[in-house]
Amino acid sequence: MNNPLTGKTAIVTGASAGIGWAIAEDLAAAGVKVVVSARRKERLEALVGKIVAGGGSAMAVAADAGETRQIDQLMKETQDWAGRLDIVVVNAGRGLAGGILSSDQRQWESMYRLNVLGAAYLMRQAGEILCQQGCGDIVVLGSVSGHHISPFSGFYGSSKWAIAGAAEAMRREVCGKGVRVSTLKPGIVTSEFQAAAGYDTESFKAWVKKWGQPLNPADVARAVTFIVSQPGHVHINEMVLRPTGQDYP
Ligand SMILES: NC(=O)c1ccc[n+]([C@@H]2O[C@H](COP(=O)([O-])OP(=O)(O)OC[C@H]3O[C@@H](n4cnc5c(N)ncnc54)[C@H](OP(=O)(O)O)[C@@H]3O)[C@@H](O)[C@H]2O)c1
Fold this sequence. Notes:
A 7-stranded parallel sheet has the order 3-2-1-4-5-6-7, with helices on both faces. It has 9 helices and 7 strands; from the N terminus they run βαβαβαβαβααβαααβ. Helix 4 links the parallel strand 4 and strand 5. It has one domain: NAD(P)-binding Rossmann-like Domain (Rossmann fold, 3-Layer(aba) Sandwich). It is of the alpha/beta class. It binds NADP nicotinamide-adenine-dinucleotide phosphate. NADP nicotinamide-adenine-dinucleotide phosphate binds next to helix 1 and helix 7.
């Protein structure tokens, strides 16, 4: 059977850990040339080494996904290396413990710059290229916390609500040009996310006790590969992916 992804080029942001790392590996295993990006260059180089050792093709670009100039540089280096772009996984993001009253307000701006403004800027830059060529995929990592706003981690959830809204707005803007913009909203996934967000380990253990086994990054990666493997006339606009036992959010 023909592999629909062979020979395509993807950018995956937030690829130095967790979900992004797994997405890059899964796409590379499916024959995609992968540009992996995040701030920690040594981690990216380890990932590139692993992909290349497995017979795949990858390049690392260290960049802050909240900074427009660094996103421009990521786009340029991708074009220089691959000469084309087919898939962009807008994955770099971070959580923030607490709600509007209880979260650390000093982190609000940087979280929004990364989760919303930087994500939207990458979508715009990629969208221009994909619209010109008349095909391509943008997959945005939302969250169940943005699907059902809960008091827990509420301001983080609002950033994921916002970027899911932007993704749907862009889908309507570009679908007539053959470009697909999808939002993937995972439930709880074991990664570095919980520590970076400042969630306490006791709460995490309590969720696992209540909900059972969380998702792992590879589960999310398979969903991304599934979304971008659909025939050109089929578009999975949105997907919610939870651990089976997670009732809410
Ligand atoms: N884990 C969950 O339960 C869960 C659930 C739903 C949605 N999500 C979403 O899934 C995405 C990935 O999360 P994860 O679970 O894989 O978290 P993770 O393990 O903490 O990984 C986050 C990735 O984002 C990168 N990153 C963070 N800040 C960045 C910045 N300013 N510029 C560039 N890269 C940055 C990190 O790399 P560097 O530190 O090297 O830059 C890392 O590669 C996020 O958008 C998150 O909101 C996660």
